[in-house]
UniProtKB/TrEMBL annotation, chains A, B:
<comment type="function">
    <text>Catalyzes the first step in the biosynthesis of NAD from nicotinic acid, the ATP-dependent synthesis of beta-nicotinate D-ribonucleotide from nicotinate and 5-phospho-D-ribose 1-phosphate.</text>
</comment>
<keyword id="KW-0662">Pyridine nucleotide biosynthesis</keyword>
<dbReference type="InterPro" id="IPR036068">
    <property type="entry name" value="Nicotinate_pribotase-like_C"/>
</dbReference>
<protein>
    <recommendedName>
        <fullName>Nicotinate phosphoribosyltransferase</fullName>
        <ecNumber>6.3.4.21</ecNumber>
    </recommendedName>
</protein>
<dbReference type="GO" id="GO:0005829">
    <property type="term" value="C:cytosol"/>
</dbReference>
<keyword id="KW-0436">Ligase</keyword>
<dbReference type="InterPro" id="IPR007229">
    <property type="entry name" value="Nic_PRibTrfase-Fam"/>
</dbReference>
<dbReference type="GO" id="GO:0047280">
    <property type="term" value="F:nicotinamide phosphoribosyltransferase activity"/>
</dbReference>
<feature type="domain" description="Nicotinate/nicotinamide phosphoribosyltransferase">
    <location>
        <begin position="151"/>
        <end position="316"/>
    </location>
</feature>
<dbReference type="Pfam" id="PF17956">
    <property type="entry name" value="NAPRTase_C"/>
</dbReference>
<feature type="domain" description="Nicotinate phosphoribosyltransferase N-terminal">
    <location>
        <begin position="9"/>
        <end position="130"/>
    </location>
</feature>
<keyword id="KW-0597">Phosphoprotein</keyword>
<dbReference type="InterPro" id="IPR041525">
    <property type="entry name" value="N/Namide_PRibTrfase"/>
</dbReference>
<dbReference type="InterPro" id="IPR041619">
    <property type="entry name" value="NAPRTase_C"/>
</dbReference>
<comment type="similarity">
    <text>Belongs to the NAPRTase family.</text>
</comment>
<comment type="pathway">
    <text>Cofactor biosynthesis; NAD(+) biosynthesis; nicotinate D-ribonucleotide from nicotinate: step 1/1.</text>
</comment>
<keyword id="KW-0808">Transferase</keyword>
Length: 470, 470
């Protein structure tokens, strides 16, 4: 679907790269943190997604000849372009596992590489991780309320252009069962399904005839759309006739689909008609502007809906269009680095770091991740990152390191998992999280703290930076 | 960047296609309308975008061998797959010009093709037009308030994955000047520009040294980011030193960039410092969560900002994640078609149609588009689509037909324009629209009406459909 060249980047990455190249700094070692500041949808957690996709792309990322010609016209210099011709990313990456439950302000991923290489991959890394994490988180919220119902991604037509391709992938990570998107199904090995459109029925003079032709022409997983003219007077009765005809051929109608009107009412009435006709095996699918809140409400009303097709609100991450993930320098040229900001909340964390998840004796999260220096093995006390008088003793907890080495010398170190496996992993991680963090309204805030050593290192850098400004 | 195969579609399109194929209906003539129901951002108009991009893609759309293998596994039948192997779109398309000002509920584009072909292209058409129209409309709103300021798209890192590539294109259509997105710049011939990141400055022990290296290593269009440590005490003074050094080498600093804090205050103070140093030619660029409302406010405060870098809010179309464009059957198998809905506002318009824009003697829009049957040349009276007692006499107006034939037998009929040309066309069309339709708060509602003949045709179909349900 996509051929990523290394020009899938912001021009300033290449401007900075040329300067590093010309000033003899390109091979300086650097560490960048990827993290986000705000959980989308005012939720209590996010589901990290896009990693395995990204690692594959990064390991193949190159500049081709037409890229280099274009960059020459942009004023980049010949010796630098020669460097770019041989560019490949040869760095190391530590990361949370794809599908893990993640929280703001702490590193979800760390890149350790030559500074020029780390800079060139910044944009594609942010672009793919920010978006897939946004969508996997949305999908996870929908899965939380949907129980065992089948969840299908129907969003491609209103997705943000080819972003929909990655949305289909991330939806599975977050707990969806399938997609209508054929090319995503093919390339990411996602179950593909689909029903029929109103236009198909309109193209016939008669709804019954349309249903009949459809069931004969595509009997596998047949779903009939019943709301083109009148759901209960026409659509469902006609679907029942066709279901009976299918039975006589030894086939089974999979489902009917409702796409307008009051879905709770129509689902209940349709269920009655189907059951009265002895078609209790025929499922009910519903679509039309669904999201986690509408599905929650439908199920609370005991609407007998078995399959939810979720479109626009899933694939665009409505109402949040973006995850605010950033990529910040923590170390370079053998020194810890920091960005002092106008706002204390935007001050970055220096040094190579590890993140520890606190768990009780039953393997349940207690609701805290602590960030330490990479060489720390256990954090005894964690401090609030911005309120120095707040701290918490961690001695009694099991401490699980979250960042694992996933790339070395530009090669993926982890075995490729299927999306199904990533999704199952995600659900198992989510099950370790207490319910208070999963509710939609004012979820409990997961604590993120820093170790004493990290706090002291940061303080030292802030002081020396302020000193210089005097 | 993207290789679109015809599997960039929803599976149900192919299910319906197989049925049309098997039931001998695939070559039946069909007409589909593309239109949207709601203007994004509660605005008074939308800018149509994506058309020329779409037409190029559609004219090349094919199923390849690996697609066919995948579809075979999905249960599609051999004779149908054989048809798909030779598939190409050979239909006709009528459309508004890309860049035109468009309004809800009336056809923006009409596809006239064999029903099987029209169905197979539905998803990609919706996907590319919905999104690019959403973003071009956002860009146009930003251009409206930004006057002659330079507008740059900085959004790729938080775009919805590769959707950002099309966002960069649509931003230019809507009036932006350039992008940071290198691959979009290369493939769509968009001016590319970029500045520097905080990480570059952090990677040095000293801000001045960082600026100096950057200006030497990449003097072309050099922009220095001045807010890493302290904008007025450190960033701007250091930028001034480097600007003077550049002068001594016969070079010129293009701009400084502000990316945090109160942009109005910092722009004014920075301007003073630059001017006092005799650097009145050095521009001020600003970024950080900008959108049309923030830019409007900054300019109302007379913040001396010359260049605006707009990111997330532009490329994701915040706060609207999607345009609600639909593709509805209007005619097939030699008959007009209609979809009756639970809501009167969703009843579709049958028949092949033309849209006429009403203009006064000065070429100014009077604020009304009338939809007639395709063979009508002039609409004398237009009727409110849903309130039959409301009508408007149109005899005194010039009537400009909006839908032009842009594709015949699957080949593009129009000359490819540069994005700059499309953008200029868009601005000229927008200038024909009275200001009342362009304001942000409660814009005047543009009237859309239907001709008497179209109204009567629709009535007839509604009646006969209701008749059948009795």
């Amino acid at each position: 679907m996509n051929n990523f060249s290394a020009t899938y980047t912001d021009q300033y990455q290449l401007s900075m790269a040329q300067v590093y190249f010309k000033k003899g700094q390109k091979d300086h070692n650097a560490i960048f943190d990827y993290y986000f500041r705000k959980i989308p949808y005012d939720g209590g957690y996010a589901i990290f997604s896009g990693l395995e996709n990204l690692l594959e792309i990064i390991s193949e990322l190159r500049f081709n000849e037409s890229d280099l010609e274009f960059l020459k016209k942009q004023g980049f210099e010949d010796d630098f372009l020669k460097y770019l011709r041989d560019f490949r990313f040869r760095g190391r990456i530590y990361s949370a596992s794809e599908g893990d439950v993640v929280f703001p302000t702490r590193p979800v991923l760390q890149v350790e590489a030559k500074i020029i290489e780390a800079q060139i991959i910044e944009t594609i890394l942010l672009n793919l991780l920010n978006f897939q994490t946004l969508i996997a988180t949305k999908a996870s919220r929908i899965r939380l309320v949907a129980g065992d119902s089948t969840l299908l991604d129907f969003g491609l037509r209103r997705a943000q252009a080819t972003g929909g391709y990655y949305a289909s992938r991330a939806a599975i990570v977050g707990g969806f069962d399938g997609t209508s998107n054929v090319v995503a199904g093919k390339n990411f090995d996602i179950p593909v399904s689909g029903t029929m459109a109103h236009s198909f029925i309109q193209s016939y003079d008669d709804e019954l005839e349309a249903f009949r032709d459809f069931a004969e022409g595509r009997p596998d997983g047949c779903v009939l759309l019943v709301d083109t003219y009148n759901t209960l007077k026409s659509g469902v009765p006609n679907a029942i006739k066709v279901a009976k005809e299918m039975e006589s051929r030894g086939e089974k109608l999979l489902a009917i689909r409702l796409d307008s009107g009051d879905l709770s009412y129509f689902a209940k009435e349709s269920r009655k008609l189907l059951d009265e006709a002895g078609l209790d095996y025929v499922k009910i699918a519903a679509s039309n502007q669904l999201d986690e809140h509408v599905i929650k409400s439908l199920l609370e009303q005991q609407a007998p809906i078995d399959i939810f097709g979720v479109g626009t609100n899933l694939v665009t991450g409505d109402p949040d269009g973006a995850l605010d993930g950033v990529y910040k320098l923590a170390f370079s040229s053998d020194k810890p680095r920091i960005k002092i900001s106008e706002s204390i909340f935007k001050v970055t964390l220096p040094h190579k770091k590890q993140v520890f998840r606190m768990k009780d004796d039953h393997g349940k999260c207690i609701g805290a991740d602590a960030i330490g220096l990479f060489e720390e093995n256990k954090i005894t006390e964690m401090f609030h990152p911005f309120e120095p008088y707040k701290s918490m003793n961690l001695e009694k907890f099991h401490q699980e390191p979250i960042l694992k080495k996933v790339m070395e010398n530009g090669e993926m170190l982890i075995d490729k998992r299927s999306l199904k496996e990533i999704s199952e992993y995600s659900l198992s991680r989510l099950s370790e999280l207490p319910i208070e963090y999963k509710r939609f309204n004012n979820p409990h805030i997961y604590k993120i703290g820093i170790s004493e050593r990290l706090r002291d290192e940061r303080e030292k850098l802030i002081r020396s930076s302020k000193q210089k400004l005097k």
